[in-house]
Amino acid sequence: MPPAAVLVDQEDVRRGVDGVLRATLDAERERLRDVSPDAETLADSLDAMLSGGKRLRAALCYWSWRAHGGDGEPGRSAALTVGAALELFQAAALFHDDVMDASATRRGLPAAHVVHTARHREHGWSGDAARYGESVAILLGDLALVLAGRALGRATAHLDRATTDLVRDLFDDMELAVTTGQFLDVHAQAVAWGADPAADEERARTVIRAKTARYSVEHPLLLGAALAGADAGALAAASSYGLPLGEAFQLRDDLLGVFGDPARTGKPAGDDLREGKRTVLVARALASASDDDRELVQSALGRADLTAGEVDGVRESLVRSGAVAAIESLIDELADGALASLESDALVEPGRAMLLALARGLVERDA
Length: 367
Prior knowledge:
- GO terms for molecular function: (2E,6E)-farnesyl diphosphate synthase activity; dimethylallyltranstransferase activity; geranylgeranyl diphosphate synthase activity; metal ion binding.
- The protein is mainly α.
- The chain has one domain (4-364): Orthogonal Bundle (Farnesyl Diphosphate Synthase), CATH 1.10.600.10.
- It is 77% helix and 1% strand.
- It has helices spanning 4-7, 13-35, 40-51, 56-67, 75-101, 112-123, 129-156, 161-190, 197-227, 232-259, 262-265, 271-274, 280-288, 291-300, 308-320, 323-344, 351-364, and strands at residues 105-106, 109-110.
- The protein has a two-stranded antiparallel sheet with strand order 1-2.
- Helix 6 crosses helix 7, helix 10 runs antiparallel to helix 16 (323-344) and helix 14 packs across helix 15 (308-320).
- The protein is globular and about 60 Å long.
- The model has no long low-confidence stretch (mean pLDDT 93).
């Protein structure tokens, strides 16, 4: 099976979405320059963030549209433009997430707040450089949200009222879920951790469902289906496999955050450990590890100065505890159930086959 990144190129989906994003950024760059030449740096940062995306969310939206009977124009342009809106929404989430997690890198490059902190220092500007960089990154996230809304408006401009209302309601629901999930993630980092691994795991899975699963998989599928005129039953079916697939997608991400190859993931090895992310993987380890391994994991979590050797030691503890094998089993369980539901859904070709291939790629990826 081709990797998901290759599947995104089918029917020129990537090129079509990239074209919408390029037109959006070019227009925004001109508007920003008209306000002030100083503001053009915002367009540069948006361009950098968007240039590295896999376009998986956009592809899921497009192929859901196709699988639910979508074909030809103007539907294709609408599906691609909603896909671009999803990419802009993801960019907004990443700008904000990197500030909240104090992440140094994003997609193998310095995160936006790091870039603008360095720019402040290089120019010798007044005030706190780090605060300046974080402020710019927050505003970049806000700007990406504005552009996502504009793209959604363009996508629905020529649709009938019922479809337009449904698409906008779904997009609003997605934004609310992600914002709530982000708060729950921040909250989970602050509350007591380790005394009740079962409660810790449930909290981590709640964050996954709200923050990642919905906007990464479920809502792109729902938006594509809605654009094709799917009824309530078809939308419910898409949710039935979209949400578990989204959870499996994030669980794979959690494994890659500890065990992934930096050359493939674009983040330093063990970065999730240094950031102290309270994942299902860690909760499973604390529930089943030996006393020594539990102490090692707890003492390492959130230590920004972890060395490569110490990261290796934590990795070995996670494997010994059985947590890695347990997460792989959970991914398989979620993915198998979702794929069975997807295969039994009344979808049309070639969309059905492409959704199945993309779904497998989401959980079998190495980056």
